[in-house]
Amino acid sequence: MTVPGHIVLIGMMGAGKTTVGSRLARVLDRPFVDSDVQVEQRTARSVREIFETDGEAAYRALEAEALAEALASEEPAVIAAAGGTILDPNNRRRMKDFGTVVFLEARPAALVSRVGGQDHRPLLGDDPAGVLAEMDEVRRHLYEETADFVVDVSSHGPDAVVHEILKLVER
Ligand code: S3P
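Above: the input record for the complex with shikimate-3-phosphate. Below: its predicted structure, written as tokens.
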């Protein structure tokens, strides 16, 4: 099975980009790159620490660099692009230019139970449901316009989502 170019997973926090992406990469025998992990490795700091010390704009710049580097690699990979990457028009353009973009779609209510217990999401604060609903309003159209394909992840487990993505990108 050959799928040319990178496969880039986008979507909100909790949509399953990391879980689905690492499984998809294993099936396709490709490297898996997670933009948050790239930022943490390059800076030797946590996402939370960068947000808290340097602010969101500084984090977004690092995130854009990490994404650009992943997309510039010639070896086709599966790339999980952190939830906020689509806010930057340059990121959106690069994803479309260098990859097949898949939006892992779920309504905010379905994401709330999936975002707990992880430290790299300082924006959620103490009102994850409210923050996710607001983010969805701002971002949904950006995810939709950037995506080549949309996969509903709210009612399917990660393996079913991987299967669906493979069907779509192989066409
Ligand atoms: C963010 C998503 C997070 C992380 C940061 C900001 C966002 O990544 O980059 O907390 O703005 O949506 P995940 O989408 O991998 O959770």
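Notes for the reader.
The longest strand covers residues 99-105.
The CA atoms of residues 85 and 91 lie 6 Å apart.
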